[in-house]
Write a structure and sequence with these properties.
The complex is a heterodimer of chains A (about 325) and B (about 260).
Chain A (H helix, E strand, L loop, with lengths): L13 H4 L3 H21 L2 H26 L8 H16 L5 H23 L4 H21 L16 E2 L2 E2 L3 H23 L2 H11 L1 H6 L4 H27 L9 H14 L4 H17 L6 H16 L12
Antiparallel strand pairs in A: 1-2
Helix pairs in contact in A: 3-7, 3-10, 3-11, 3-12, 4-5, 4-6, 4-10, 5-10, 7-10, 8-10, 11-12
Chain B lengths: L1 E12 L2 E12 L3 E5 L6 H8 L7 E6 L2 E2 L5 H7 L1 E3 L12 H6 L10 H6 L2 H20 L15 H13 L5 E5 L7 H18 L2 E5 L3 H7 L2 E6 L2 E6 L1 H5 L2 H8 L9
Parallel strand pairs in B: 3-8, 3-9, 6-7, 7-8
Antiparallel strand pairs in B: 1-2, 1-4, 4-5, 9-10
Classes of the chains: A mainly alpha (about 325), B alpha/beta (about 260).
């Protein structure tokens, strides 16, 4: 009985290949070194698109907690991304707040938004929840589009980028490292949550709500926690996104955006962290590398996605190597 | 002094009465069985006690605390644990993780604790694990803790479910047909396990069971439910000779009860 397989972990099939800490640390170190070296060995264009992919890693990790861990289908995740971006935009532009003061505010507002939308809806079954979140996403975008404070359709411009210890973070390479750090932190937090009391509770509730309740788990509270943590990821992504571009407009937070983030999670493998990271890189980088074929790239990309879903319905990342 | 008390409990679904003015109690320190023909309302009664169903009238209390208004997780935290008629272990999770779920309501680490992994959180994790390991060992599962729980043989899954319920540190344990699908050898082990739960852990046991031989050997009190009405209550001997009980059973399935 000792030789029987362990249950699949958040790392998916990776745990079978990288079975010793030494191997794990080696691979992590090599990957990290490659990421650090990347902007110095490639051109500026690659740096910018990989930065964009890293932003998607952060957003998708957040959505992965909601969809992957807690099993709640959220079609309006871009709303939290928007709340983060607009909080930074408005508070720095109109109230002259420092970015580092605006950031915690963005987190607080996104959490409040998460609680407001989550409290009445998390009692719903997942298909209803999907519709409500879709509506919520649109409400946030349309509000941003129509309010004077959010700059209407043209959005907010001239958002100042942050300073760290007297250093002005402004070049593309600077922001590349900002998002690299965010992605790494995002991964660490996701892993730690997965292996915690709360992380397990998400899985219990996802697999069997009744049995989870019979074990003393407050399902509404546990789901709300997933929702709020996801919202925080989204808002942090949004805050740095605003600081990076210096300008935001409602169209950056459309339904399409929500779907794209969800696509990253599903494509990579729901609930599997390396899968989500890989998914973000594929969804963002593939269309860029296909630029050579012109408009055909969207077609090729779409066919590729369909094939992946057809042959690997549970995501690219292997669930388990052997069973 | 009774641990669990039900008074005038009535439950209806869409006009049909499932439980009709049920009075029922579980004396402290006893093993009690709830028997009755199929569809008598036994599992519905369990669901009322554990907070999954809300009876339209009546009161249910555990050691004097009213539970009818509580949500299932609050009832569990108060000290009532249960297993399900069809084993319901958490899929894709290990045996140990399944049993660890029982400690959720007895612990408190949240998001910040998980992210920072402070000593307090690590101690709590170790404690949760410790309880789970102890409960698994208690039910006789000493290996294969890392296995996916739903891949275990059926009889083992039943015991994991009991361990999971025990991990909530209950005062009262409700077992819904714990012997269903077990071999005769496994049934003997189950009888022994239930007795040990009572004597070694000081947990009261209330079980729904169709295996009459097992019920008669194990129970100190038996209550009989038929069509939502509690028709008899007494010691196994009294129940065996109760004409109402014989009638209820003979009317339904003649061979199932060798009284």
């Amino acid at each position: 009985m000792a030789q029987l397989p362990e249950r699949p972990s958040a790392w998916g099939g990776l745990s079978a290949i990288l079975d010793t800490p030494t191997k794990q640390w080696t691979v992590t170190a090599v990957l990290l070194a490659a990421m650090v070296a990347l902007p110095f060995v490639t051109d500026g264009y690659i740096t910018v698109i990989v930065t964009h992919a890293l932003l998607y890693v952060v957003l998708a990790l957040g959505l992965n907690i909601v969809v992957g861990y807690a099993g709640l289908l959220d079609l309006g995740f871009a709303a939290f991304f928007a709340v983060g971006a607009y909080t930074v935009g408005i508070t720095t532009q109109y109230f002259g707040l420092n970015f580092w003061l605006a950031l915690p505010l963005a987190v607080v507002f996104a959490s409040i938004a998460g609680i407001i939308i989550g409290t009445p809806t998390l009692r719903l079954r997942s298909d209803y929840l999907a519709i409500v979140t879709l509506g919520f996403g649109e409400i946030v975008r349309l509000t941003a589009r129509n309010l004077r404070e959010t700059g209407g359709a043209s959005g907010i411009r001239g958002i100042e980028s942050p300073w760290i210890f007297g250093y002005h973070v402004q070049s593309n390479i600077d922001f590349y490292f900002v998002f690299l750090i965010l992605a790494v932190l995002g991964i660490i937090v996701s892993v730690r949550l997965a292996n915690s009391r709360l992380g397990r509770a998400w899985l219990y509730v996802r697999h069997d709500e009744d049995a989870a309740e019979a074990m003393g788990i407050d399902r509404v509270r546990v789901k709300l926690a997933a929702y709020v943590v996801g919202a925080i990821y989204g808002s942090i992504g949004g805050a740095f996104f605003a600081a990076n571009l210096g300008a935001i407009s409602p169209e950056s937070f459309s339904f399409r955006q929500s779907v794209e983030i969800l696509m990253v999670v599903i494509l990579g493998g729901i609930g599997k962290i390396p899968g989500v990271v890989l998914g973000a890189f594929i969804v963002i980088l593939a269309p860029e590398f296909l630029r050579g074929v012109g408009d055909l790239r969207y077609f090729i990309f779409a066919v590729g996605l369909l094939l992946i879903m057809l042959f690997r319905p549970s995501g690219i990342w292997p669930a388990r190597s052997k069973r | 002094m009774s641990l669990l008390d039900l008074k005038n409990v009535s439950l209806s679904f869409a006009g049909s009465r499932v439980l009709d003015n049920v009075d029922f109690s579980v004396p402290a320190g006893k093993i009690v069985s709830l028997i009755g023909p199929n569809g008598a309302g036994k599992t519905s009664l369990f669901n009322c006690i554990t907070g999954f169903y809300k009876p339209q009238q009546g009161s249910i209390s555990l050691a004097g605390t009213e539970t009818v208004k509580l949500k299932p997780h609050q009832v569990t935290r108060l000290g009532i644990a249960r297993t399900f008629q069809n084993v319901r272990l958490f899929r894709e999770m290990s045996v140990l993780e399944n049993v660890m779920s029982g400690q959720h309501g007895r612990t408190s680490a949240g998001v910040v604790d998980a992210i920072l992994r402070l000593p307090r959180q690590r101690r709590e994790e170790a404690a949760i694990r410790g309880v789970a390991e102890e409960c698994l060992t208690f039910v006789g599962i000493t290996e294969g803790w890392g296995r996916e729980a739903t891949t275990l043989p059926y009889g083992w899954q039943r015991r994991v479910e009991i361990a999971r319920a025990l991990a909530t540190k209950p005062r009262l344990l409700l077992l819904d047909e714990p012997a269903a699908g077990l071999t005769s050898g496994e049934k003997e082990e189950l009888i022994d396990l239930i007795r040990r739960i009572r004597t070694e852990r000081d947990v009261c046991v209330l079980l729904i069971e169709h295996d009459t031989g097992l019920v008669m050997r194990l129970s100190e009190r038996i209550s009989v439910l038929d069509h939502g009405v509690m028709i008899a209550e007494g010691t196994p001997k009294e129940i065996q000779s109760n004409p109402k009980v014989i009638e209820a059973y003979l009317g339904v399935e003649e061979d199932s009860l060798d009284l």
